Task: structure prediction
Amino acid sequence: MATGRTHRPATRSRGIPEATVARLPLYLRALTALSERSVPTVSSEELAAAAGVNSAKLRKDFSYLGSYGTRGVGYDVEYLVYQISRELGLTQDWPVVIVGIGNLGAALANYGGFASRGFRVAALIDADPAMAGKPVAGIPVQHTDDLEKIIKDNGVSIGVIATPAGAAQQVCDRLVGAGVTSILNFAPTVLSVPDGVDVRKVDLSIELQILAFHEQRKAGEETAGEEAVTASVPKNTPKGPDGDVPVVMPA
Amino acid sequence: MATGRTHRPATRSRGIPEATVARLPLYLRALTALSERSVPTVSSEELAAAAGVNSAKLRKDFSYLGSYGTRGVGYDVEYLVYQISRELGLTQDWPVVIVGIGNLGAALANYGGFASRGFRVAALIDADPAMAGKPVAGIPVQHTDDLEKIIKDNGVSIGVIATPAGAAQQVCDRLVGAGVTSILNFAPTVLSVPDGVDVRKVDLSIELQILAFHEQRKAGEETAGEEAVTASVPKNTPKGPDGDVPVVMPA
DNA sequence: CCATCTTTGTGCACGCGTTCACAAAGACAT
DNA sequence: ATGTCTTTGTGAACGCGTGCACAAAGATGG
Result:
């Protein structure tokens, strides 16, 4: 799962729980697939299986949105697609800028999952003058100098940062200064933003490290019979997959 | 057969909370930066600020690892780097394969954050015969036919899936069949894996949708109730969640 | 050696999220 | 209409994570 932070303090009034919001896109994807197969209705059990969650959780999630189901039948697929889309704000157009058109930025620009959800890549921005004008995913890259103007001209409120770590905070400050209030950060840095600005971060390295932790524990479990806790220097030598280290081939 | 989440129910022995594990890489990154600046010790307050978390939370996190701090002084940076690295299993070499060398796969192959954390890209695999042999990030792409052999020859236990959604489950099955027990999934699909296999997913589109939800709510807040005149500064949030802005630019 | 000061480590309370289990609601057949 | 059957919506219990607040531990200075 992606490591997002900056959760809000439980929106007071008509608050949909943050955990529920995070699952709505999951339901929406499953529902869209059903819709394309012209399935008219779906039960909480079926939909939950398709989305990979518990059915009770799914029903509770939907209960925050309203009573959109029919007892004894299930949920109307089309209607639910619409309701969730509306709740997530996907019925409107969201212009997005991507800053930092390296490998990752280019991959993001080419990513098809954006356009299909109401997100439109309004501009690509990079600090390298050599990139300026060069088309990526059919969109010409523009220079960082024009960042503020681009944001304002396009009414952009969501920015994606795919720059190196060193440039991220500076880019972030300029985005916020120009009016961006939501940021998706791919740079491995903690961003400081004023109140009212949302930041979600995706860190590939962190995800791998979490996997490594579990992987190590799995490997240790096999060899661990009974262990006295000595609390300091466990000579844990998991005879894991690195028994034979072939050749380290630097990139 | 489990679907998607393979949650570990706090196994008997050394149960470090999942939430803590997810933050360890964050601390490690901050500590590494301090180490490079030859800072000998750091207090929980300083380190917490650098990692963007609450200091009490950080101390509690560390308490699960052991008592590595010195009261009145703080934590020894080098020692803590080692302890966290060991806990995360980063002191050993983790060969990783990336399947699906499109835009995203290529970006991942080029990502520098892997090698610096003990992860080694052992192989790149793609289904397109035209890609075979072509070097990406200095590593020749190999064909899917050889997937099983590559996994076994290199002792790979962590796989990264960057294929289109349609191919993801099939690739996943083959990876698991060949011995992979941890998967990082970038395809927008719910993967079914047997018990004992961990799956983490990163979905770019979902992150944007969550941002859109909050963005829409912000926009709605302004028009409801009284008008917020001065642009971007909203009403005070009762408490600072994580978004506190200490902006520590340490000397 | 004692006093004071700093910072860790943690007991405790609170709130959010998850899950169970079941009554209410509606469809459908007779 | 009435009974049966299916599935939703939710009250309630539980567990995990978070943050406060403070005592314990060690450093430091006199």
Remarks:
- Confidence is low (pLDDT under 50) at residues 1-13, 225-251 of chain B.
- Residues 43-45, 56, 59-60, 62-63, 67, 69-75 of chain B lie near DNA strand C (CB under 10 Å from a C1').
